[in-house]
Amino acid sequence: MTIPQDPKPCIDLHCHTTASDGALDPEQLVARAAERGVSHLAITDHDTIDGLARARAASAVLGLELINGVELSCVWRSHTIHVVGLDFDHANGDFLEALARQNDNRWQRARLIADKLHKLKVDNLLERATAMAGGDVPGRPHFAQVLVEAEVVPKVAHAFKRLLGAGKPGDVKACWPELDEVVQWINAAGGIAVLAHPRKYRMTATRLRDLTADFRRAGGRAIEVSVSGQSSGDLGFVAELARREQLLASQGSDFHFPGAPWCELGKIVKMPEGLEPVWHHFRQPVGV
Ligand code: AMP
Ligand code: ZN
Ligand code: FE
Ligand code: FE
């Protein structure tokens, strides 16, 4: 069955499935996106494209355009940074090797997180976090869920605030490649590197300008301007960064699970004027 679409494209280029730390599996995610009127969707799981084949099949049935996507973890000057890759060749051998190394990095990090949190005396923390991740490598949200279950903290947000967030004992950065390197992986696979959710790094304006300039020098081509839960001040600030560095503008919900009304598939704040949309530069351009 094909769901009729609004002729105006509804574009969401950032979201997660159970292939990383999302709550919906690829079929459920695509179905929800279709229900919400999304016409063009990029699934951007953390450091993996394992959900894409199933999502592609589901998208074909529901008449949605699926753009290849991934969200890569890296470091820049001791900050953990997320770079979204869009519209790359998902069969590129070097890219697949890089993703396999990222998966090893994630396992190494998961073991380090479990070691660092051993003082909490949660039995089988790594095993339980792995089970929470469906047997795949656990991310910080999976550890957070186990810590809630074990009544170490009342809520996931507390787990990040006390134990897993930036600068806390369970925040391990040592495992990630440099920003330049992940940008090069994406470019070499024919994709577009997008600096994800710039305001989430809690950097000063000066530092964020430095990051954006370095990202651009490394070969990054786009920046997420419209992101869920962002103030209008932040939207304007990031739009200005995009203009200043002549970066293409991207948008996405960063949807992880249903039930958070401020973060829903296809719910995107209108992009400020004067920016060049990243989707005009896909191999099959959208809306031009
Ligand atoms: P990881 O890639 O394992 O480091 O996990 C990153 C993910 O953790 C993000 O995509 C969010 O889903 C989640 N996350 C990061 N910070 C917080 C926070 N303060 N509260 C809740 N979830 C968070
Ligand atoms: Zn996530
Ligand atoms: Fe992210
Ligand atoms: Fe994300």
Give structural notes.
The protein is of the alpha/beta class. The chain folds into two domains: 11-91 and 179-280, TIM Barrel (Alpha-Beta Barrel), CATH 3.20.20.140; 100-163, Orthogonal Bundle (DNA polymerase, domain 1). 38% of the residues lie in helices and 14% in strands. The chain is built from nine helices and eight strands. It has helices at residues 26-35, 52-62, 93-116, 125-132, 140-149, 156-164, 179-188, 205-217, 232-244; strands spanning 11-12, 40-42, 65-67, 69-76, 79-86, 192-195, 222-227, 248-252. The strands form two sheets. Strands 4-5-6-7-8 form a five-stranded mixed beta sheet. Helix 2 links the parallel strand 2 and strand 3. Helix 1 (26-35) runs parallel beside helix 2 (52-62) and helix 4 (125-132) packs across helix 5 (140-149). The longest helix is centred in the middle third of the chain and has 24 residues, at 93-116. It is globular. It starts with 10 loop residues before the first strand and ends in a 36-residue tail after the last strand. The model has no long low-confidence stretch (mean pLDDT 95). The protein binds adenosine monophosphate, zinc ion and fe (iii) ion (2 copies).
What form results from the Cα inertia axes? globular
Total count of strands = 8
- Report the sheet with the most strands, covering strand number, pairing sense and barrel closure: 5 strands, mixed
Unreliable runs: none
Question: What is the spatial order of strands in the main beta sheet?
Answer: 4-5-6-7-8
In total, the number of domains comes to: 2
CATH fold topology of the largest domain: TIM Barrel
Query: How much beta, percentage-wise?
Result: 5-15%
Query: Helix proportion of residues, in percent?
Result: 25-40%
Protein name: Putative metal-dependent phosphoesterases (PHP family)
GO molecular function: 5'-3' DNA exonuclease activity; 5'-3' RNA exonuclease activity
InterPro entries: PHP_dom, PHP_domain, Pol/His_phosphatase_N, Pol/histidinol_Pase-like
Domain Polymerase/histidinol phosphatase N-terminal: 11-76
